[in-house]
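User: I'm new to structure prediction. If I give you an amino acid sequence, what do you actually give back? Let's try with this one:
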Amino acid sequence: MTQVETPQSRCRFAIAWGDITPPANIYHRMWGAAKHERATGVHRPLRATVGIFEAAEAPTARAGDLQSPSGADEASGRRLQVAGTGSRQILLALDHCILGAVEHGQLVSHIAQATGQARESILVVFSHTHGAGLMGLERASLPGGDLIPGYLRSVAERATSLVNEALSRLAPADITYGNGRCNLAAHRDFWDAERQLWACGFNPAGPADDTVLVARVTGADGRLLASVVNYACHPTTLAWDNTLISPDYIGALRETVERETGAPCLFLQGASGELGPVEGFVGDPAVADRNGRQLAYAALAALTALPAAGTRFRYTGPVVSGATLGAWAHEPLSADELAAKEAWQVARWNEPLAYRPGQPTAAQVEAELKQFQADEEAARAAGDPTKAADCRAMAERKRRLLHRLSQLPPSDKFPLQVTLWRMGDAWWLGVQGEFYSVLQTELRRRFPGKAIVIATIAADWGASYLPPREIYGTGIYQETIAVVAPGSLEQVIESVAQRMKTF
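Assistant: Good question. You get back a string of structure tokens that encode the predicted 3D arrangement of the chain. For your 503 residues, that looks like this:
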């Protein structure tokens, strides 16, 4: 090997960001074990970030552009939109855990109508912080819940403003990609042998993907426009004892990267279904800040190591000195090579996934919810606060399941929303649901030498978790609340990989 290629993209790009911190006394209970309902303050502000990516030159539709690579999509119910059907992708990243189908639909519809942009071009992704509160309209009757409807409207208005701001600043840009390593994330499927149960917490013996994928976005003049950090780790540093609105570790991550680079930092949550911070489930915001700085330093190291855009690193030959040395130098790419970095293709489709057999009915869950509520009252009357707290947490779990079941699409399969776009040497993937990390490790294994940016928890949370086939039946938390059948994660991997091969 006499040269090292760095994955690169050339496109039109713009970024805009703004504060979306809710009122400090809004409904906040995210955790079943939490004893509070309203937030008591703000740890760090929440942010909405809009990144717009556009083909360097709008592609011309070609015959066959609307055909599936396999030819089976139309028959299987997928809605497919591929290369040549869109030269712009709008990415809206929110510092929230999730949104329900209704809330997500209202947000996207408002942005599309107010900006004139195609609804399908708007991809909403979430940092997945568990410290921002649960912003569901069904919570409006709870303490602080009356503030939720107005807050969600303000987020939609703020996002609309940011999209318009970014549209007005679209300009040519280069994106250079690299990888770093960070051991913040750890495996979190832990077998408690003493109690013979699975707990969702630090498992020091389990494997964890430590990849930090970074992207540096520069303008035509070489000025840094933005940094992108793509990492897989549940933002669950702060848990039931935390009463403050917080972006969790993402806040300190962004602050540290932006202080060092002088440009905005966009964080994208990777496939972290079984990954969480080594130190988590605490109430101390200082721990979240420390976790964020740990990831920031790893990201900054990888960003610092990136070469200039439009270059490769090449062996130039021996130099005779005290020893015969091998010299390397950065050299500019040719005009044809630079043009190849402008390649643009996009696919947007619904992947039909079979529902999990034996899904409980709404009536069954409603009955279980009422029973846990009655048991909680009885435990309090009997002076048993521990049992009362457990029943309250289980009632919250059933309440969320009931809400999720009510919003599932009325069909025999779940239409998982997927957006995949290629820019030069990189693919960007936005996919609904909480995937185990094999989604990213397997795609990156199959396509070495390419940059694959993966943002999960896109759109609404209806898909819930997508664990590997072998996890089903174990009783692990992520498996017990999965709504799709075993093999769904593997089906998505194959579907995405097939399209990547044709791009």
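You can read the tokens as a compact description of the fold. Here is one thing that stands out. The CA atoms of residues 365 and 400 lie 10 Å apart.
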